């Protein structure tokens, strides 16, 4: 029990976590983070593992597997097409758009 005039000590980790959550909410990055988490979960449930190239649409530096000789896709429209096709494939539909 804390008496009058006695300061409570808050653990440093709790302060960091609160500050971290506040920064996310302040910058409005929470919806982006939520989208990445949900799409990653969808990919895992669909049996995909490794580098998820379709998530490059959300990131500044496109993801690719250089060990397999893949070239990063920097064109935003092509990244959007990859995203839509991946979601369609994971939903059991055919990818109906081609990447130029």
Relevant terms:
100 residues; mainly alpha; 0% strand; globular
Characterization of this structure:
The protein is mainly α. Helix content is 47%, strand content 0%. The protein contains 3 helices and no strands. The chain has helices spanning 12-27, 30-45, 76-90. The longest helix has 16 residues, at 12-27. It is globular and about 25 Å long. It starts with 11 loop residues before the first helix and ends in a 10-residue tail after the last helix. 7% of the residues are buried. Mean pLDDT is 76; it is low at 10-15.
Quick structural gist:
With 100 residues, the protein is an all-alpha fold.
Q: What structural class do you assign from the helix and strand content? A: mainly alpha
Q: Uncertain regions: pLDDT < 50 for 5+ in a row? A: 10-15
Instruction: Give the termini distance in whole angstroms.
Output: 67 Å
Rg, rounded, reads 20 Å
Strand content: under 5%
Shape: globular
Measured as a percent range, the helix fraction is 40-55%
Number of helical segments?
3
Secondary structure tally: strands: 0
